[in-house]
Amino acid sequence: MIKSICAGFPYKPVVGCFGYASSIIIESSKTILFDTGGYNLREEIIKRLSTIDCVVISHLHFDHCSNLDLFVGTDIPIYISKAEMEYYKKNKKNDCDLFSYFDFIKDNLNI
What we know:
The protein is α/β, with parallel strands linked by helices. It contains four helices and five strands; from the N terminus they run E-E-E-H-E-H-E-H-H.
């Protein structure tokens, strides 16, 4: 079963950045959270935290993973592609949408 926690809204302003990504729960033999969304979903993620078996992050833009800090110190596995991790390392200064706080929490996540 697939449940949408939040449907995204695709919008890119001429100047600055704006993000409102989708966040989805996939329930099968495990409960998978696909993207943790922006801070607007924080309360909803907290309510579901005890039911989540793993997290999949599509990419490291802030509107897709701003709630990753809720998983700091847990055993919940977080999956991020190697290609995305490489992109993050190389492009931090050039991509204003990247979730810069990831640097401070990544070593305390089960990636």
